[in-house]
Amino acid sequence: MEPAGGRGCGDRELVSGSFRRYTTDELVDSRPDAQAREASRVPLIVLLDDIRSAHNVGLLFRLCDCVNVEALWLGGITAYPGVSEHASNRIAKTGVGGSVDVLPWRHLEDPVPEVRRLRDEGWTIAVMEQGRGTTSWRRAAYGERTVLVLGHERRGVRQELLDLADVVVELPVRGITNSLNVATCASVVLYEILGRWLEADGG
Fold this sequence. Notes:
This protein is of the alpha/beta class. Helices cover 40% and strands 17% of the residues. The chain has helices spanning 11-18, 24-29, 34-39, 54-67, 85-94, 99-102, 112-120, 159-162, 182-201, and strands at 42-49, 69-75, 105-108, 124-128, 135-136, 146-150, 167-170. Helix 4 (54-67) links the parallel strand 1 (42-49) and strand 2. Helix 4 packs across helix 5 and helix 4 runs parallel beside helix 9 (182-201).
């Protein structure tokens, strides 16, 4: 009996035979140049507000570059390249592949006014947080232009940013651990948004 979808065990050889792994040289050669990156940026700004771990910041640089978002904003106490040698080294360690050098980013002592401005300009403000009244990440309406806000690892997103949210997005946590790493959370939602953007763009 074939599993749902009509693919039987005999097809495994066919799938395996049709797959060829890219070499490292091929992956390097396929990197888009600056013009191609600018032409295909997803209309998405990621805001990290009061993120304590510079390692997490580096991971978000790498993730945002992979998705090719419009910009990464680093708010409040969030570490940023150049703020100290210690922070820069930690960010560089996890933000591999040159992402720190090519991804547009800025540091904001207080990101609230800029987020409010973008909301007034029609951007959707999506906050990742846990609580009552949240929306599943798969059901959320992210809008054509989105600001995704992630906050402090323990305290969460500050109230001033929550007050600006059009949607509060939550991932299900079904085990005894009550939270996920901030970069892990961001990756789920960013690839959900990217998938929708590619479908709408015909990609």
